[in-house]
Amino acid sequence: MTTMIVDVESSADIGHVAAAMRQLKGVARVRIRKDDSERIPGLPCTHDEYMNDIHRAEEDYAAGRTVTSEEAGKKIAAW
């Protein structure tokens, strides 16, 4: 399965993009996700999801739930 990401200038363009995609050989289905406009370019997440991950990491660090790169390397080597 191939994923194609298309940036459009306005929501009016979405219909045109979907129609054009349906004309491509081998395209069985076109699905437009509404939440893509909130995604951070180059990242597979929204700004809120990214900030939640940062806050969770800060909480983990404050609670001592961390490992050094050396400890991580040892764990990986043991796999």
**Tally of alpha and pi helices:** 3
Largest sheet: none
Total count of domains: 2
Class by alpha and beta content: mainly alpha
Key terms for this structure?
3 helices, mainly alpha
Describe, in plain words, how this protein is organized in 3D.
The protein is an all-alpha fold and 79 residues long. It folds into two domains: 1-38, no CATH class; 39-79, no CATH class. It contains three helices and no strands. The chain has helices at 12-22, 47-62, 69-78. It is elongated, with a radius of gyration of 20 Å. The relative contact order is 0.07. The mean pLDDT is 77.
In short:
With 79 residues, the protein is mainly alpha-helical. The chain has helices spanning 12-22, 47-62, 69-78.
Compile the SSE list and pairings.
Layout: H1 12-22, H2 47-62, H3 69-78
